[in-house]
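Readers of this paper often ask what the protein records in our data store actually look like. Such a record has a labelled line for the sequence and another for the backbone structure tokens. Nothing more is needed to write down the fold, since each code stands for a local backbone conformation. The remainder of this section carries one protein's record, kept here as part of the documentation.
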Amino acid sequence: MSAPFDYGRRSRDYAVHRHGPPSEIYERLAKWIDFRGAEVLDVATGPGTVAFDLARRGATVTGVDMSEAQVEAARVRAAELGLDGYTSFRVARAEDTREPEASFDVVTAGQSWHWFDGPTVAGEARRVLRPGGTLAIIAYSYLAAHSDVAGDSESLILEYNPGWTMAGWTGLFPQWVEHVIQGGMEFVEQFCWDYDELYSHEDWRGRIRTCNGVGSGGMSAEDVEAFDAAHEAMLRERYPDPVPIRHRLWCVVARRDDTWRRNQVHVGSGHGRRSTGPR
């Protein structure tokens, strides 16, 4: 029996067991963003995973999420990590953050953009960014097609929840480039790479309990408990502890550049926009 969809249902699993993006992503972003001293808005922050990574790098981070349970989990985790002086969290939607205009240097969205109306959120990011500010959209998805353990875990999910439609996620999001352009941002770059993330059995079980096909709405509480027991037995029987799981990092970087935007309006003769299509 399915339960109502709500990522806040497994907030503690999110906070403790679900890994964030690889640290190399911040090294790559450093050519566009100086995190030390930056004021950052992290939308759909969940339990604060990306927010805490940025706070450790010297940023002051405001995290917003539509789930009260996720926001509370982020506050608790911030205190546990000693980062509550560098982070704050409140309930708000990514499409309407209720933050003042031009009040942040950076906007981030970690493992969440696929749930948004992308152009609307890009427009909201542009509104709250200062001129020259940067938007970084980060996805880090496990790849069931390239990882035996992840594939077996998804097969087990489908035994308990055959109506689940998001198995076999590829982690490829080329459409996000158009989202940021439609939202009035200047597209800077898009990049991706595959990597192996080492998970303990305990953490992988917690990660899968947060899955939208399992504990975040795909199954009832009773079914989640039965699934998790079967998942534990499967992992113990087939895989070493810990186990490497193939992931894909996907990132889109854009910025608020008012000079660029003005040029879009005035360039050319009798045209409101410059063509961005192939020449």
Notes: The two ends are 53 Å apart (CA to CA). The chain has ten helices and seven strands. The mean pLDDT is 91.
